[in-house]
Design goal:
Length: 202
Amino acid sequence: MPEERVDDLLTENIELFSNRHRDIYKVFKDHYDAAINETGYSSTFTENQKLLTGAYFIMEYSVASAALFNPSMVPHPDQSAADDGEMRFIQSFRAVGEGHISSILFGEGLVKKNGEICIENNSQLLDLGKITHICDTVYELNFSKDTEISSRVIFPVLEDERLGIEDARFVRFENGSSGDDREITYYATVTAYMVLKYFPKL
């Protein structure tokens, strides 16, 4: 494909999808890298050819197109915007998308003094985070500190999770005394869903 045509198609894709992704260039490049690593294909590409190739390997997926339910709620780690008698919170949800695949989404809100619950507007951009370590059934998932909590999604990545992650239940643990020595950690239990096929013995 002529480089001029590559540039035109890349520009067209950037215009179409940039408002749906926080960093469309990174998304295209990440998908290119994943495709090359999977196939082992070796060739020389210009930067725009890499980005356009990555665009062809993107599958847009709506994580909550079918359902959003089974919430869990914990106190927000940042209470600076809450007045006396109020509490900010974080909710987690089981989100079901196409193919009945479940993932975990988050939202933020505030409980007022009178008991009224106010839900903040959710981000329209989702962030899958970055897997920094994976070994059998263990992996670390990290999100950039500048991403909104409501934009973060825990999407199944392991073989044992291939049909979804369901029903997270978060609990806040505090270690140490109050003040600077106190360490706050959030833990959750989830259900990883897969189907095992059993065949009769012949």
